[in-house]
Every structure is written in structure tokens, then in C-alpha cells.
Amino acid sequence: MKHMNSEVKEERTSNKKRIDLFLVPIVLIAAFLNLFKIWTDEYANAYYTAAVKSMLQSFHNFFYASFDPGGYVTIDKPPVVFWIQTISAKIFGFHGWSVILPQALAGIGSVLLLYVLVKRTFGVWAGRFAALAMALTPIVPAVSRTNNIDSMLVFTLLVATWMLFRAVRTAKFGWVLAAFAMIGVAFNMKMLQAYMVLPAFYVFYVVATKITWKKKIAFLTTATALMLAVSVSWAVVVDSTSADKRPYMGSSQTNSVLELAFGYNGINRLTGNTSVTGSSHKQPAQAQQQTASSETKQNSNLSADSSQSLNQRKSSSSQKMQAPGGGNQNGMFNTGNPGPFRLFQKGLSDQISWLLPFVIFSIVGLFAGVKFKGPYTTKQKESLFWLAWLLPVAVFFSIAGFFHQYYLIMLAPPIAAFAGAGAVALWSMYKQHNGWKSWLLPGGILTTAALQVYIMSPYVSSIGVAPIAGVGALGVILALVLAVRKQRKNSLTNYLGAAAMVVLLAMPAYWAMTPIIYGGNSMLPAAGPDSSSGMGGPPSTATNSKQSGFNGMQPPGSSSGNSSSNNQMQPPSGSSNGGQMQMPGGSSNNSKMPNSSSSKSSSLKRKSGGMNAEVNQKLLNYLTKNNTGEKYLFATTDSTSAAPYIIKTGKPVMAMGGFSGSDPILTVSKLKAMIKKGEVKYFYLSGMGKGGQSDVITWIKENSKEIPSSNWQSTSSSAQQGPSGNGTLYEITLK
Length: 735
Prior knowledge:
The protein is mostly helical. The chain has 26 helices and 11 strands. Strand 5, helix 24 (about 640-650) and strand 6 form a beta-alpha-beta unit. The chain starts with a helix and ends with a strand.
């Protein structure tokens, strides 16, 4: 106990010391990567931005995280992050950047927390390198620059880690409770994904805490109970509330938060199955080999953070460049094919795996000579914690049937921690000529440089040969020189070691900047020269930002843009849509990739977010003028068409089938009652949203009056194309 008290006093003393000047530029780098130009993203992820707009209007919408101001359906995630985003929008005003800001700050905070966590045990240089590695991990800023949840989730889990480490150092039960309660809070951000760190928490507390086994079991049992209570607190309140007094739980099939948490957002992510109106739908990696028409049907079954259609995730073989993960060979949503080397495959490796070989060598060095029965040093105990975080998460992503590239941010903290701790440990072994361990440093540098060459090679047409050859040549030369100079001790050797670390971080740094250089995709964020398209295709410039994200998606009722035959995106083989890329929500895109010669219609603001880039003002004028007191401005099949109008007007727009149009929310009898009450009379149907509402759509078409397109289309050209026909506006009035 005296030893623990001395550690606490030492910590307080160190906290009073001046700021680490080496940390300042690292934080500035993180701030630049996470914050610069977020003000150009006007809509961000429009699905979530629309929810913030709705949550600002009433406490009812705020508490339930309602997608629409009318409180018809919620978004598909718990509310905590969106509570924070709503508070930010309340303070700074409703903007794209104000809903992104909390995640950007969380990304910076994660860099600082990792520095604090690693520095205390492994030394200040280990903390610095770990913080820098975290800041430059490409997927970290890519996600943090959006209003998706994962950056805030990782920050919260790192706060929980700091609490756990403090619990072990002080042997105070209160910190254990706080750590596990924080995981419960994280559950209310992204459900079961928060529990990925639990193996690390349990293993570390058992191994590192110097108390009796009886107390360990009692403390962990109590802390786990508290965590579960915090986790399900919101879900129990929502599920116990009468369904007619709250919104429908979006993307669930039984209107239940718990079903959503442990089913679709839980186990089904591992199995690759999604449940749609009671049926099981398998979504293996080979699904990308299906035809465009079947892919369009599948798209209606995906959750909010999987809205981008399978067509959009693929590049035609006729394109000039295939980015990693492009084509039919690399699984759904650029996530590769399941297997032990999945994290080294195209599409995933460039997001997270740049330093993985060095991390593997670091793990070998840090655990060299450790005996199973101990005793363990503090460094070994904390290394065990990071390993118990890294391995289960890596295994999950290696075998999971359904996830997105940006989920890989969960791997960033342990990889960065091992990079920092390992760099110092391997350098010490190298300098001390510690037998075979002294070869780990040059070996780690050589293999890591080789992997980075492999990661960059598919991008040769985008980034050129020089950086690829440079990294490969410098990596080999520095590794060989360090191996040859292993017996020498002078300043040149120190410089060579530092140069090697710079080389290994150079291309991750460039990749981390690509969302700024090329523009980002707020719906499905990823880093790389194709970060704007998010499609594994050629990179687009950021100047024509209105067309970024989903390449100029058209709003309901507007005509498709003209395209250049040289730059037109081609559909996958087997498509019968006349060469047009099908977009979620019924829009088609035959527009060219953004370029600097675009017309005045281009905006400096980037209206991406995976939703329609803007509203059709003529349609909005028509609906507003002819509204006779109805609650909803109009109803549509899914959230894609609804979100921009909610953001623009703040008025209720009904997404009848929830996010993708597949939620079994509405019945014909319920719709009839709503129409008779005067709650809705206009319906925009574009062919999406089959799933659980085909009967409703059929009834609407059979009992409505079609509004002439000339009354509401933004141009005189043909109506907007949807997956199964033209988008059409209907009116229904029942007595």
C-alpha cells in the first residue's frame, strides 16, 4: 500500500511539471487533421444531421433521438453521441461543422489520452510516439471529421481505460466502478461494439491488482452489474414506454432497442445476417458478385451506417484505376474477404495496418522472457492489457460478415500504444546488443516498410512511383545499415533510428491528410486518394464539393445531371440501368466525377453525407403552398429523400420505412387513420423501400391522385430515376 501511495504522489508531482514541448506539435497535427475544413461539410452524414435538427425542436425528440421532427421514427443508434451533437448545435448554431465538432475534439482527446496512458509506464518518448502514431492512423481523422459515432466511442473507452489504470494503481473500488460504468455509457453510443474492450479490462484487473481473489471477484462482479445497468438503462425506458407515445425504434424489426442492440447491431454484425421483416438475409462478401438489380434490393436492407449501395462501392473494370478493395474480389463495402490475413487485404490495410508488422515485433520484444506464472512487471501488465484489446478486436474484424472500414478505429489505440512502447523497447534491446532481441528493431523496420509498399502499390496511378519506391528503398537501407552497425554506439546510429521511424510514419501521415486533400465521405468515411468517392475508384478533387460524397446526387424531383463520356462512372457488369449508377433513395447518377471546370452550380460547401445534396426548391414550394395544416410536409419511402428537407426546413417529413425503407412501421390501416386525421396527404415514391411496406406502397398508388410533374419538377426534363421507375408525387385525401 505504501508503494501505491508513493505512485499516487509521484503522479501528482509529475502533473505539476510544465507541458511537454514535444507533445505540442503532435497535438497541433491532430488538431489540423481533425478540424481543418470541417466547416466545408454542410450536411455531414445527413441521416444523423437531420436527427440533430429534429432533436433541437423538443425534449421528446431529444430523448428518443428522433430522426424526424414529427417523432415518427428514431435513428438506428442510441442517443448519447447525438445528445452531445445537439448540445453543440444549440451552443454554436445548427451547422454541419457544429455536429462534427464533438467528434473532432474527441479525436484530439484520444491522442492526448494515449500519451498519458503510455507515458507513465513506458516513458515519455514512448508516450510521444504513441500519440503521434494515433494522430497519424488514417482512419482516425477520417472518422473524426464526420458526425459518425466511432471517434467519440473510442475516446470514451480510453477514458474508461484511464480510470481502470488508476483503479489498479490506487486499489480504490470507486475507480473500478467508474471504469465499467463508462463502458456502459459507451454502450449507449454504439451498443455491443463498446464491449469489445471487456476482455482487456477483465484480464488486466485480475493480473495487475494486488488484492485477494475474493475481492477481485466481488469487485468485478459488482462493476459488471453496474455496467449492465447503465448499458440498458435507456433501452429499458424506451422499450417500456407505450409504442404510441414514442417514435418507432429505427432499423429494428420489433420496435425494440434491445432487439436492435443484440440482434442487428450486435450478433448479426458477426454473422453477416440482417433480419428484414422476419426473414434472414445472408450478406457474405461474395454478394458483390451479384447483379446490379439484386444489389439494389439488398441495399434496402442495410442499416443507417451502411446506406451506400453496393453499386457505389465497386469500380468498373473499364476504369483507369482500381483502388484497394475495388471490383468483385474484395468483399462487401471494401472490407475484404474473411480470413486470418484480412487486415492485410486491400481496402482495410490502408486504413489501419501501416504499422502492424512493427507492432508484432514490438509484442515479441515486450513479452520476451515472460513466464506464465509471473511475476509480471508493470510494463508487462499494461502490455497485456493492450494485447487483450488488440487481439479480440482484430479477430472480430478478420471473421465478421458485415462492418464498415471506419469501424477499424477500434484497433487504433492498441496499435498506437504498441508502436510507442515497442519503439522504445526495441531500441533499448538494439543498443544493449541483447542477443536475438537486438535484431527485432531492424526486422520490424524492414517488414513494416515492405507492407507499406504493398499497401501503396495499387495506388501507383494516383500517387506515383516515387513515394512507393522511396519508402521501400529507405526502409531496406535503414534496416540493413542498423543491422550492420549493431555493434557501434554513436550519434549517427541514433539518427538512423529516428530516421527509420520518420520513414515508417511518412505515408500514414499522407494517408491521414487525404480527407483534407481530396475531400471526405461523411456517410462511409475512409482515408486514401479515393476518400471523397468512398467507392474504391479514382480520386476526385475537392473543388467541386457539391458533387462529392455520392457524386452529385439529385434531390427528389430534379433531373439527372449531364455527364461527360470521358468521366462517367460505369455500373458493374450485369447492370441494366443504361449506364447509370443507382443511388440510395431513388436517385440516379450519371454525372461526371468532380473537376475544377465545373459550372457555377458548384458550391464551396460540401453537401455530401451520402444523401441528396440539396432539396428541390420547386417541390418544396409546391408542398408548402398546398399544405392545409397537415403534420407532415410529405411522406417518402426512406430517410434518403427525407433528410435534406428536414435539414432545410425543420419540418416533419415521414420516412415511412425508416432509414432504408425496410422497417415494418406502417400498415395500410394506420396510414388510412393518419390521412383521415389530416396528418399527411403527399407521398413521394421513387421505387425504394420494399421490405416491410410493399402493401402500403401498393395502396398509395391505387388510392391517390398523381401530381403532374410540371407542378413540382425542378426542370422540364424527365423525372428523377429510381431503382424501379420514375419518382412520382401523389396526393391522397380521405373523408
